[in-house]
Amino acid sequence: MNKEKILQIIIETLSSDLAVLLKAAKAAHDASIHEENIPDNKYATLSLEASYIAQAQANRAQEIKVALEAYRNLHLKPFDEDSAIYLSALVTLETEDGVEKKVFIGPEAGGLKVQAEGAEIVVITPSSPVGRGVIGKFVGDVVDLRIGNSTREFEIVEVC
Predict the structure, then answer these.
(1) Digit-coded pLDDT (tens) for 121-148
(2) Separation CA 16–CA 13 (nearest Å)
(3) Among residues 101, 98, 94, 88, which one has the least CA distance to residue 135?
């Protein structure tokens, strides 16, 4: 699988998310200062609520900006079967019953899901439970990973 393409998809996805959030934050800000939303009594809180939404969206936009910068500066390292897994690895995990999961270890935006070459790839960070479970491991290692409310056993079948 082409990690450069995956990296580009992650950057495009984050850029798109940022554009949507900035537009939404502006709309919420405009609503918070609109003359029709000026409170005329202590129970009229529409302006205040809109300002809270605008601030939350602006905060999330800042998080995405940080993630974008991290991915734009990410150096993709090549991995092989003898390489320990760490940042920028694309890891294929497989359960006993043959279900495969692909994860990309990135610096930010854990939980982001992208589609590449017909497969779903989940971005994980080194500090996430799955990230901590696979960092430093090798192809062929079996790891117990807590996913949701259950722990599953996965074999690391490929890393690139």
Answers:
(1) 999 999 999 999 999 999 999 999 877 7
(2) 5
(3) 88
| Amino acid found at 96 | E
Domain limits for position 149:
90-159
pLDDT for 37 = 63
Structure tokens at 12: 């495009």
Assess whether 67 and 101 both reside in one domain.
no
SS3 127: coil
Q: What is the pLDDT of residues 72-82, one digit of tens each?
A: 999 999 999 89
∠136-146-160 over CA atoms, to 5°? Answer: 35
Compute the CA torsion angle 32, 37, 39, 41 (nearest 10 deg): -140
> How many domains does the chain divide into?
2
The domain boundary, picked from 72, 99, 119, lies at 72
* 108 and 138 share one domain: yes
Domain closes at, from 14, 45, 72: 72
What is the reported pTM?
0.85
**Lowest mean pLDDT, pick from 36-40, 78-82, 148-152:** 36-40
